[in-house]
Amino acid sequence: MEADRYHRALAELLMQLADDDLVVATRAGEWLGLAPHLEEDVAFSSIAQDEMGHAATYFGLLAAVQGGDRDDLAHLRPAMARRNSVMLERPNGPGTYREAPHFDWAYALARHFLYDMLERVRLDRVVQSAHRPLADAAAKIRREERYHTQHHAMWLRDIARSGPQYAGRLQLALDRAAADAADLASAGPMAVEMEALGLLPDASHLADDWRAHVVLALDPLGWSLPPLGGALNGRHGEHTQDLTRMLRDLGEVYRSSPGASW
Amino acid sequence: MVAAAAPREPRARQVVAALAQVMDPEMPGVSIAALGMVHAVEVERDHVHITLLPTFVGCPALDVMRANVVSQVSRATGLVPDAIMVEYSAAVPWTSDRVAPSCHRALLSRGIAPPPPAADSIMTEMPHVACPWCGSADTVSEGVFGPTACRSLYYCRACRNPFEAMKPV
């Protein structure tokens, strides 16, 4: 029984980590060719590539724990089996990357910043995880993440200096992102087990720590973190049609030839 | 287990020599051994097990490097490719401090500034690096992200050339 509980809590944690990164990487990747300027195109695509690499690592760990293939886990699970936060699955703005992408850079930036702060406080815990392969991977991943944090901090600083018109747009973007973020800093239905079993130490303070980091970054620049909202809880497998559509597009080629070696 | 640095057994020596010939596909002339990516080499009678450390876990060149390791080691040892196992591991995180001094020179000669020492704290600013072309310290960071995951962009105000630097990680 105890082993079963450990196994289930570990799988839940790995799914949260893997699904968050897969989804945020996909949304970030949709900016390729559309970012505000060429250097940002390179930067945001690099960040997307990093996040996808992290997702692949977590899916590999999940496959090792529960069996199966990491690509199958990434591409073939239905939306209701996913554990990512709802905020991360939202489109970048009106349109799609293939058709009339009238994306909202402020929104993409605000959302990725909020996620970055979560990654920071979550990875600080995961590096101490009782599951050694996960702790090792997290130590590596945390070293890469600081460049994402730095990049977003640079953007926020620049926007804050650019005058009220732009600063106001960023606050609106933060409001929109926060409206879906109630589940973001949650470790889900097995949070208590994750903490008790040492898989995610101090899971109970994850949300408080996240909020403190967000406020610390936003406050000096004149922005605030609005109340969090969201009727759906991604950690429970509740998702929007946006995720269903994303997974359909993302896995289209993979599903076209099951078992093919890529 | 044979440490990658000081192999005594002939086949282990062949393997280590072969690894010094496997170049980073995105930095020709810079070997994966000099980059500090080789973690361990285990030589058995009929197979070789090589553990590599990825510089960045999402680096798209990892599979290319794996294939190149297999072909180089196969050629050097006479073992069939199937007998050469290459594994990426996170057991020890790769850091830019593993890049060998000889590799620093190779990078400089290709216009890439070598990585400054990696700090464990969260950085708030990009580190200051000297221009690989003219040596001037009058450089500015132009962007954290460059053409590959492990490099960032700089500009030298003295010789007015853009250049790349390996990120401290």
Mean pLDDT of chain A: 95
CATH class of the largest domain in chain B equals Alpha Beta
Query: What is the number of helical segments of chain A per DSSP (H or I, 4+ residues)?
Result: 11
Biggest β-sheet of chain B: count, sense, barrel? 4 strands, mixed
Considering DSSP H and I runs of 4 or more, what fraction of the residues of chain A is helical? 55-70%
Task: Considering residues with a beta carbon less than 8 A from a beta carbon on another chain, report the largest interface and each chain's count.
Answer: A-B, 29 and 27 residues
CATH topology of the largest domain in chain B: GMP Synthetase, Chain A, domain 3
| CATH architecture descriptor text of chain A | Up-down Bundle
Looking at CATH, which topology of chain A would you report?
Answer: Ferritin
Name given to the CATH homologous superfamily of chain A = Ferritin, core subunit, four-helix bundle
Extract low-pLDDT stretches of chain B: none
Described by the principal axes of the CA atoms, the overall outline of chain B is elongated
Low-confidence stretches of chain A: none
Total DSSP E strands of chain B: 9
Structural class computed from helices and strand pairing of chain A: mainly alpha
Looking at the chains present, what oligomeric state does this protein adopt? heterodimer
**H/E order of the elements of chain A?**
HHHHHHHHHHH
End-to-end span of chain B in angstroms?
Answer: 27 Å
The CATH superfamily of the largest domain in chain B appears as: Fe-S cluster assembly (FSCA)
